[in-house]
DNA sequence: TGATTGAACGCTTCAGAAAGCATTCACGAA
DNA sequence: TTCGTGAATGCTTTCTGAAGCGTTCAATCA
């Protein structure tokens, strides 16, 4: 088996690798990263510590694998949320960011260990963080594309527009806010921002078509 | 003399209090909060440590005083920047946030100790942080008022709009970004966001006047 | 009476020793 | 050749006692 390198895109996981990740995930969720030891993970899988290193380059990489799953799941949920039929492009954009806020807020309050670990990994591995942002941007670009096809939107540069959207809603995906903020208030502010945003798009469409 | 309580709005400072704050500021800037001792501050002012507590309730309150000065200065700079004559309302809004980004970015890189201390105090004293946000919002509200008077803008709720603006540009005032981000890139993204924002306002004005 | 002092108190930080843990590697089993 | 082991290694965290520092207060000064 090829030793996986840090940060590289993983091929579909081995059974053993998956077992390791499962065991580690359980422990990370209950006790957190710091309070989980490699021996414990190995013990849960009935193997020795040394063998873990045949499947993951380091403990931190196991954690990255854990977060990668969360991330994949989250992107999928976002896709599902905006994929329901009958949504206009504007509704899709709103749903996207509402859902993202809700998922982040819930995870922050209901699975603090998972949230904390995500933040840690995203901070230590900028590449990985970029990967996630890019994956989200891809979903946004698809929404924008859909909007252009139906004529609901006129966007000159989709990737750039996606980036702008991510900038604009940054506050609602930034942990600092979750400590204090009541969810309802946050969601309300998000809607206000979205309204202004959409008016901006409307203005641009109007200008282009004139 | 009345013992000042933590967090309360300070009356214009006593000469002695100002001397303490001056001495403390010098030390905070050079050595940081942690490496500055109360004896050193007292020594610089030719007084005993005990006497410091007649003017400030705690070391942390001295630091708050220090940050309060920075904040006041920053608000003044923002006012100056948007106050130059001949600026349209849209240019004022752009200037406001460009200036804010520039000030924060510069302080982060040129006076890291001051930046760090600001962050710390703002985190520990939510009330104080709110005060700052409110002061900024006041400047924004004034800009918006000006825009309404000249008919450049149509805003239904000024305070709320100011809040939306603060939300939208949150990313550019959030420290996480300064580590990595090149200033030019950040400023460019800020402009992109501002363009969309202003289009949103334009759309609303158009809709109202129709 | 109001301002100031500096020693005393107890919490926090720090240095150095001890323990624990991530990681490696030489070796064995399938 | 692949998978797996578990003791050895050395980095990191934890522990503990001592030093340092913020804070208080009874006493002194003007």
Explain the overall architecture:
The structure is a homodimer of 210-residue chains. Helix content of chain A is 75%, strand content 0%. Chain A has helices at 15-31, 38-44, 49-55, 59-83, 89-110, 112-124, 126-149, 158-168, 176-180, 183-209. Chain A is elongated. Residues 1-10 of chain A have low confidence and may be disordered. By secondary structure, chain A is an all-alpha fold. At the A-B interface, helix 8 and helix 10 of A face helix 8 and helix 10 of B.
Q: What multimeric state do the chains show?
A: homodimer
* Number of distinct beta strands of chain A: 0
Distance between the termini of chain A: 61 Å
Strand content of chain A: under 5%
- Give the overall form of chain A: elongated
Structural class of chain A: mainly alpha
* SSE pattern of chain A, N- to C-terminal: HHHHHHHHHH
- How many DSSP helices of chain A? 10
Given as residue ranges, the uncertain stretches of chain A (5+ residues, pLDDT < 50) are 1-10
Sheet with most strands of chain A: none
What is the arithmetic mean of pLDDT of chain A? 90
Considering residues with a beta carbon less than 8 A from a beta carbon on another chain, report the largest interface and each chain's count.
Answer: A-B, 26 and 26 residues
């Amino acid at each position: 088996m090829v030793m996986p390198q840090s940060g590289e895109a993983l091929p579909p996981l081995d059974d053993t690798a998956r077992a390791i990740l499962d065991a580690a995930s359980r422990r990370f969720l209950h006790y957190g990263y710091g309070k989980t030891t490699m021996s414990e993970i190995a013990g849960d899988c009935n193997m020795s510590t040394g063998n873990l290193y045949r499947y993951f380059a380091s403990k931190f990489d196991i954690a990255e694998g854990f977060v990668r799953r969360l991330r994949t799941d989250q992107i999928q949920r976002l896709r599902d949320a905006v994929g329901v039929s009958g949504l206009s492009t504007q509704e899709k954009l709103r749903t996207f960011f509402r859902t993202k806020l809700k998922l982040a807020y819930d995870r922050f309050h209901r699975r603090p260990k998972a949230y904390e670990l995500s933040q840690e990994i995203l901070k230590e591995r900028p590449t990985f963080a970029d990967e996630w942002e890019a994956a989200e941007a891809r979903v946004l670009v698809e929404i924008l594309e859909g909007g252009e096809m139906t004529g609901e939107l006129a966007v000159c540069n989709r990737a750039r527009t996606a980036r702008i959207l991510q900038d604009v809603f940054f506050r609602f995906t930034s942990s600092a806010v979750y400590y204090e903020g009541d969810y309802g208030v946050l969601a309300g502010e998000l809607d206000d921002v979205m309204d202004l945003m959409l008016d901006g798009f409307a203005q641009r469409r109007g200008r282009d078509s004139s």
